[in-house]
Amino acid sequence: MKKVFIALFILAAGLSARAQEPNSAANQTANLNLTNAIDITFAANTSATGAAINFSFNTVNDYANGLESAPVEVKVRSNRRFNVSVKSSSAYFTYSGATSPAPQMYVGNVLYFKMTQNNTGGWSWVNNRYDYIDHYNWTFLYNGVNGGNQNFTIVYRVTPGFTFPAGTYTTDVVYTATQQ
User: Fold this and answer.
1) Beta strand pairing call for 72-78 and 138-144
2) Among 178, 177, 161, which residue's Cα sits nearest to residue 42?
3) What's the pLDDT at 41?
4) Residue 35: alpha-carbon gap to chain centroid
5) Beta strands per DSSP E along the chain
6) pLDDT digits (tens, 9 = 90+) for 35-74
7) Is the peptide bond before 71 cis (omega within 30 degrees of 0)?
């Protein structure tokens, strides 16, 4: 029995020595230095410059009723909550045509927009309701949720009426996304 006990002791000691092979460890800290980031683009071309929207007034009914654009999807990516504002690049459309002096068409009386879809988690009072666009920057979308694919869709409406002569009237619509 003594020999069996000694043999078991030697066997256990040998197994124990094999189970504890030498090892070493090293560690390193990984720091993520994040800054606030925000981006607004047009979904159709993933660019900050959207495609031109052309309204062609060809009939008397177009002038009488105005025209509506196809939907335009805008995408915001932000790591914080955000607001979106809109304005035209100037108070008056730029005129290109034969009439001199150039007519003065005020943007705020002619160009309107509404939000037809809002997937930002934020709120807006232009949900399916037209409001004017003019040269003053005003916030229409509040408290959008941070994320990488926050979209909203806009539709434009133009109603120049019968007052203005033929020609091309142009303005830029500027959307600005601002983090809270």
Assistant:
1) unpaired
2) 177
3) 97
4) 18
5) 38-42, 67-68, 72-78, 82-88, 94-96, 111-119, 131-132, 138-144, 147-158, 168-170, 173-179
6) 999 999 999 999 999 999 999 999 999 999 999 999 999 9
7) no
Burial of 73 (0-12, 13-18, 19+ CB in 10 A): middle
SS3 assignment, position 102: coil
Domains and CATH numbers, the chain: 36-179 (2.60.40)
- pTM listed for this prediction: 0.82
Which amino acid makes up residue 55?
A: F
Distance CA 144, CA 121 (A): 5
Give the separation between CA 148 and CA 73, rounded to whole angstroms. Answer: 15
- Residues in the chain, pLDDT under 70: 1-19
